Amino acid sequence: MERRTIGAGALEVGAVGLGCMPMSWGYTGSRQRGDESLRAVHRALDAGTSLLDTADMYGPFTNELLVGRALKERRGEAFVSTKVGLLVGEQHIVANGRPGYVKRACDASLRRLQTDVIDLYQLHRADPEVPVEETWGAMAELVRAGKVRALGLCAVGARGGRRSGGLYDGTIRQLRRVQQVFPVSAVEAELSVWSPEALDTLLPWCEARGVGFLAAMPLGNGFLTGTLTPGQGFEPDDMRARHPRFTAEMMAANQPVVVGLRRIAARHGEAVTAAQVALAWVLAQGRHVIPVPGAKRERWVTENAAAAGLRLTPQDLAEVAELPGAQGSWE
Question: What is the tens place of the pLDDT at every residue in 58-75?
Fold first, then answer.
């Protein structure tokens, strides 16, 4: 697989990453099977998908434990990204950016991941009660201690604020502040054909400073794969059950987006899928961009990895640009 670099430190990863969250959290619980997910991680590594993206809150904790089972055997082939800063309660999620907590959480993640160093340690969310410089300073101390190789920040965007102008203004202000403390190697934010907002300001900010961009949800939570049926419904624990774009009405209204991706895929061969076109579009947004699609089955991991070899033509990119904007928002 093509290799891309993250940050000024030139940390190399496969061009397509693997989002591990669906294996343990956020999606349909009845379809989460540890052994099946473990096979998917191994398949990803076989295909050159080296970036494994997890977080201590996924599960909570169980996702890191699962990834750790794979790392125990194949640590040298993987680039491990995990996150800190969010605590999961019974019915709520709260931020904790206290320096002491960050250091304890890192040690706990290292144990669960069965490794002595985390390649990319990301701040999941800033704690409104703690200056972000203090949290980031504690994370920087982990780099100096040899427990972490590089630092990243998860953006607050479409799901954390308004959809209108200035979507990532708050994230960019945070980035400017933490850059004064220790270099930012990567930013993770949503970017896909149906959620392109990061292209306006956040992606250019990263490109101008040599900061890697991890594109979260590049397949639109599964919608852009074309495998979901409008009105199929979701289990209560699946976050799409509460997502305004996944009502039966909105899924039907947004079908033209999938139809357009399938049309482009057909020009590249019978085996090419809408999902691969969606990932290839993300890859085409810059050499510093790494899509991180979530998956928990070997089949989807294999399909996603193959997207790294798909090159969209200027005509393809123009057609994507002309697709209708997605309907349904968080407002």
Answer: 999 999 999 999 999 999
Q: Smallest Cα–Cα separation from 303: which of 67, 63, 43? A: 43
Contact partners, residue 191, CB within 8 Å, separation at least 6: 198, 199, 203, 213, 215, 216, 217, 218, 282, 285, 289, 291
The total of other beta-carbon atoms located within 10 Å of residue 116's CB is 9
- For the stretch 140-173, pLDDT in tens is 999 999 999 999 999 976 544 444 457 899 999 9
Scored b (16 or more CB within 10 A) or e, 10-37 reads ebebbbbbbbbbbbbbbbbeeebeeeeb
Q: Which of 58, 101, 121, 168 is catalytic?
A: 58
Neighbours of 124 (CB within 10 A): 22
What's the rounded Cα separation, in Å, for the pair 129 and 105?
18
Asked if the peptide bond before residue 291 counts as cis, ω within 30 degrees of 0, the response is no
Task: Report residue 192: phi and psi, to 5°.
Answer: -160, 175
Distance CA(274)–CA(276), nearest Å, equals: 5
Q: Is 58 a catalytic residue?
A: yes
User: How many Å apart are CA 298 and CA 8, to the nearest integer?
Assistant: 32
CA distance 12 to 206: 17
**pTM for this entry:** 0.95
Residue 12, token pair as written in the block: 């190399």
